[in-house]
Structures
1.
Amino acid sequence: MVYFGTKLSDAKEYGSIQKMYKPNDDSGILDDAYTPSGSANLAEPAITVTHADGNKSLDLHYISHAVAKIDDNVSMLTVTLKDPAYPFEVKLYYKTFFKEDVTEQWSVITHNEKGVVTLNKFASANLNFKADGFWLKQYHGNWATEMRPEESKLTHGIKTIDSKLGTRANLYEPSTFIISMDKPATEDEGKVLLGSLEWSGNFRVDFELSPEPSNYLRLIAGINNAAAEYHLKAGEEFATPALVYTYSDHGTGDASRKLHSWARKYKIVDGEGTRLTLLNNWESTYFDFNEPKLAQLFKDTKKLGVDMFLLDDGWFGNNHPRNGDNAGLGDWQENKLKLPNGISSLVKEAQANGVKFGIWIEPEMVNPASDLYKAHPDWVIKESGRPEKYFRNQLVLDLTNPKVQDFVFGVVDNLFTKNPQLAYLKWDCNAVIYNAYSPYLKKDQSHLYTDYVRGLYKVLDRVRAKYPKVPLMLCSGGGGRVDYGALKYFTEYWPSDNTDPLERVFIQWEYSYFFPAIASSNHVTDWGKQPIKFKIDVAMMGKMGFDIVVGKLNEQELAYCHEALKNYDALKDIIWHGDQYRLQSPWGNDVASLMYVDAAKSKAVVFNYLVNNRYNAGTKAPIRFKGLDPQKKYSVKEINLYPGTGSVLEGKLVYKGDFLMNVGINPEVNSYHTSVVLQLDAVN
Ligand code: GLA
């Protein structure tokens, strides 16, 4: 049993916790830390196996545990379990981050049987909870509708969230979840667990509420075992991905901040570093560009005042030019008609304009209309006996095959070797796996979903070994792959192709429960009818970028961009590395508000967005700030003022932290001021 909750003052008393709980459980193993199947356990198991002799019964007994201190903040608890009847072992790993209060949990399975053991199910973690009721917040969506939340009270039986898509696995639902205990948690109150599987493929998270009167919640999370049994040879290790989770008894705000600090320090590449602002050309040109157009875009990048130009899809393919999404994927050579002088001349030209250059790739994929498909049909995941079924006109390469891994690594490596000044990659993944068949795996087809992701991580390991710091954006036709398994290799993610800022307030809000602002790529685009001020103010709550035609901005709009970029430069350190407080939700309110505060509590920024266009919608009451020092005095000023407009706040505002947190400030958001950004500075 694992105890979550307030730290006890006498450590010896932890030993007495278990005997206080009396689950109504005849099997005696319902609250085990990793429930096997085929023996006494008749509830949903964490692990199911078929032994080498065909027997399906597994029993796991505690053998030993060890705690290793990795450093002052991180320690690793390992618990060894063994089957008394078979040479079969599971090690449970709990990597704990004390300051951040975060745990990563996974398991490693091995055996020494005479022959191959089949793993039919192999969860990462199996947690048990006891409370007066459980509420699950989960997410669903699709392209452009990512991260739609739903919260419901868990009833008896099993509730499952899962994916079987193979790649782009989070397209319909991600593995991220929130469980409230006793009552639905709020931002500042309630017992709450935030979790997410660190895996970019099929996942399954079961929430099993055992029957009255025990009412235990059993959470079992891991790789989805659907069509995925794994054959394990004697002596071979099967390591599951980690489930990362954090618990708070002070609501979701505290839990999110813990996850953010952990992610920045321990998971996301360069999470405590800096990021590049950029101009992307996807929506301004789509596939239709050439060198003169790009030369103009480099100038526009400079004129706008951002750090980098990002060239999106459409730059490659010759026999099958990438002029639409139906050809060219796999042929990663510059298109000679569009780019006769190649990428290296683009990098130079961008630099001559004083900006960096980044580029889009989607190296895991292939269009049937490509040289690659013709040269290597055996590199493609498909059922040879069935008609091909495409997703966005493309198929997925078989990353279980080491030759394909070399190829995909080569796509990245060639770009950087030929263009050492290349500053950034956007790595996309736009298809799911239909007709899952790997020519490479032959008889082990059920390994495909697991080994695909392992193959992807092998490639990304090689990329990071050679290019440890280069910024990489994780994109998957929008947010189809936002998870901490992948984010270990990336500096940022693309939340959604939906960049309508009103939609983005909601989408970014929901991602913010699990992922820190520094990793959220928020672009200002033509989506949405709102003015540029609203768009930029929304993009600012993360890593800002643009995908607009700069030439279409009028003088005032361009001046606003410059003003906002100047403010962003001054505040980005707080947004990226500070503590985030969600003040007022966009759901059910006219106005969404959230703020970021620096570690010293001396500087903060508050974003307020109108999310309801009905008559008289706006802030009728003050918004109470959070995370400030009650004793410090702060000046409050509106920033990001559109040229020619004054602040909605009258006079010079200086208030103590306790006033700002108990009474608050009315940011006067309404249909005339649809977004209001406030800067707080501690004053003496
Ligand atoms: C995906 C991405 C977009 C863009 C296109 C290019 O849909 O999400 O941002 O890069 O691919 O084809």
Note: The chain has 13 helices and 32 strands.
2.
Amino acid sequence: MKYFIGNWKMFGVPKSVNILNKINYFYTKDKNGKKYKVIITPPYTLIENFSKIFKNKKILIGAQNCFQKDRYSSDTGAVSSYMIKNVGAKYTLIGHSDNRAEGDNDKILKEKVKSALKNNLKIVFCIGENKLEKKKKKTLIILKKQISKVLDKKLDKNNIIIAYEPIWSIGTGEIPNPRELQRTIGYIKKLLKTIFGKKAPPVLYGGSVDANNVYIFKQNKEIDGFLIGGASKSSKKFIDIIKNYYR
Ligand code: PGA
């Protein structure tokens, strides 16, 4: 099973549902539609509405983040996984580099992961090195730390997806060279196997994925799908990624 996950970030109002309608229309008719899942993570404000609209449709709705405390707390502006689950989300991203930059450390992320899984959300756990770490050849060390400090074998591996997103690639148009990416994804998969055993969680790639470069990623069969930011805000761009992947 492959995954095409659209991360809308701070984008969208109720009428943006048109974008999802078009994607869902394509997805439902696509002869390859059984080979992949489409998940869209709109902002919190749209989760309930979109979850209702697509309740019995193929597209799945997720959140972009969740707060680390369970259920309710006195943290102004915070939204818990319990609240997200209750408005219909099936997934949540955790550990996106935007949120790490705002203070999400390994301890907080571990709490988020636990809380989300406890509330029956599937998680997409994001990891990735920054430009300096890459330059200093620290990528694998960083990824190992990001994974081993947060994930452990007691967690339900069936509800975990990993998204490798090099920070220097997010929104920049720069993508990793294929050999390096193959090595990195291979390393992540090996590491996940040591934690979770044989059937380890899938590993997605994210960072400037678009319809033009997806054929490069397609060569690497180890990549289980994509976390797509910018290009997921246009139905055409998002659909073209899927089309070109299966071309
Ligand atoms: P991008 O974003 O596709 O715009 O690079 C990816 C992400 O932040 O998940």
Note: The chain has a mean pLDDT of 98.
3.
Amino acid sequence: MVELVDRLATQHSLSDVELRELLKVALSDSTVLQLLRDNAVRTAREQFGLGIYIRGLIELSSYCRCDCLYCGLRRSNRSAERYRLTHDEVMECCKEGYRLGFRTFVLQGGEDGTHTDKWLTELVSAMRREYPDVAITLSLGERGEDSFQRLYEAGANRYLLRHEAANEALYESLHPAGRGLRHRLDCLESLKRIGYQTGMGMMIGVKGQTIDHIVEDLQLIARMRPEMVGIGPFLPHRATPLGDEPAGDLRMVLATVAIVRLMLPKALIPSTTALASLSPTGRLEGILSGANVVMPNLSPSDIRAKYAIYENKASWGKEAAEGLSALEAELQTIGYHIDYARGDFNL
Ligand code: 5AD
């Protein structure tokens, strides 16, 4: 195992069989997991020092045409409260975020049919005009290549679109009404071609997922070399078909994050909200597995509860933008600090 971790750290790749072995052993042997995490942390520090980038998350809309089995915003969830922010509300969030020191805004939302190219490009253009020095990240699901292109020309720089599952059968079982894995990967290819810094990723521990599936995810990530990779535990939401399933395993999330860091030393990897929601120490444990980004919530506080992709989502305290000083204090306990730079991917 020592040799495997060493080779992953120096050559940034392993075979399927080796990855599978490493994940399996890391799950049961805490010294191997620690070795993996220590290597990932060293690699992240070589790239980013002790600074953690922050991204202000603005949750645009809880309306969604998709019906993903795991997600509380799925269209079949009749009990979900729906909202959408207006143009002016989003600009208000940006104003507050900019004042607080954010230099990346992430517009995230369900696939809301009212978010036409016209509405979105007007919003992105306005943000670009008002804040020429910020990075604008979109996380709005699958759209056509022409739409991605228009939004890029309006001023967006980055796009997050988790691939969710590299295995076709698993992908289909989780998204029975979706457009399929091929379409999702085509979207990712389009985004890269257009010039977006592109993010992919998946949940750990979602129903039906095996270690072999995670190996497939890791090898897909290694092949596609995205600039950003988001990984968090599955967390059950009562009003979904997966409401009675157990949450993802913390150690498996940490091992997977560490492996991605070693595969892609320069990638921007968030310590996700889901990880912070799974465990009180999740946020720091993610960083101590090689993550280098956190994404505090900039959404208006009265709508946060309604953006419930899973239950008990962390959005107060250190998750909330107003909690930046609390976040700084938390990072200090492990010797890290907030890095207020835009934090683009650097080759
Ligand atoms: N638990 C954890 N993560 C979830 N996501 C959606 N639903 C859940 C859940 N129940 C993740 C998906 C999606 C991202 C925005 O949130 O991977 O891409």
Note: The CA atoms of residues 17 and 341 lie 39 Å apart.
